[in-house]
Amino acid sequence: METSSRRRVHRNVPRRRKSLNAIVPTLGIAILLATLFTSLSPTSFSAISLSDKLALLLTPQPVNNAVNTVEPALRIGIVSGHRGNDSGAVCTDANGNVTLTEADVNFKIATLVVQRLSKLGYQVDLLNEFDTRLNGYRAVALVSIHNDSCQYINPEATGFKVAASMDTRDYNRASRLLDCMIDRYHAATGLPFHANSITVDMTSYHAYAEIDPNTVAAIIETGFLNLDQEFLLQHTDLVAQGVVNGILCFVNNENIEPTSTPTFTP
């Protein structure tokens, strides 16, 4: 049997626990309020209510340990052939009236190419033929858009042509841009590759000597303004997409099926 004194000890234990339980929350609130008043300046204190400050301190703040790994957008240059300099090839009707200029066709295609590449997240520059920005221009790729003559030459004067700058520090990348442009443009448009009419003016295109030697560049004539005129005007979206696909093939290092497409040697 327990003595009365021992019973009194047991009766006092709950009281002490109750007192301690009452003190702990009070002490916690006191510490919280002390932190609140010492961490906030008088200016910020007057700007928001006490309840807002309490909520701010009591709300767990997210810890952002993520590292910003967003890379800058790749730069691509698109030259609108003859723009800002001359009209290029000129198409006329039977009475000699001008109906179409190469510069206008080039610009329409180039504008679509720039818009579509920009939507994909690339940093794209629309450049004139002799744009001052071409001097030392740096980009992952530069493509100049042109078209061939309005004059009837022969029934075989149809299709497109591409020439890349081989006077570069990376011949393999230049060859790859060339192959990508030929493969993807043909796939998008169905136009044949007209290799036999590629001229030295294309292989030695003036911009090649102006841009930074690390910039891989090519020039494309998307068609002949005589036999291909209807296709170029009515299916400009396909023409532009063919150019876009060729550039994406190069930039993304996409696969190219082996072909027996002849190459031009000046």
Question: Short summary of the structure?
Answer:
With 266 residues, the chain is α/β, with parallel strands linked by helices.
Report on this structure.
It is a single chain. The protein has 266 residues and is α/β, with parallel strands linked by helices. It has 2 domains: 4-58; 75-251, Aminopeptidase, CATH 3.40.630.40. 43% of the residues lie in helices and 14% in strands. It has a 5-stranded mixed β-sheet with strand order 4-1-5-7-6, covered by helices on one side. Strands 2-3 form a two-stranded antiparallel ribbon. Helix 4 (102-119) packs across helix 8 and helix 5 packs antiparallel against helix 8. The termini are far apart. Residues 1-14, 35-48, 53-59 and 260-266 have low confidence and may be disordered.
The portion of residues assigned to helices is: 40-55%
Estimated structural class: alpha/beta
| Total number of helices | 8
CATH architecture annotation name of the largest domain: 3-Layer(aba) Sandwich
The counted number of beta strands is 7
Detail the poorly predicted runs: 1-14, 35-48, 53-59, 260-266
The mean pLDDT is 81
Give the overall shape, derived from the CA principal axes. Answer: globular
CATH class of the largest domain: Alpha Beta
Tally of discrete structural domains:
2
Largest sheet: 5 strands, mixed
The radius of gyration over CA amounts to: 36 Å
Instruction: Enumerate the strands of the largest sheet in spatial order, edge to edge or round the barrel.
Output: 4-1-5-7-6
Q: CATH H level of the largest domain: which superfamily?
A: Zn-dependent exopeptidases
N- and C-termini, Cα separation: 118 Å
Order of helices and strands: HHHEEEHEEEHHEHH
What percentage of the residues does DSSP assign to strands (E)? Answer: 5-15%
> According to CATH, what is the topology of the largest domain?
Aminopeptidase
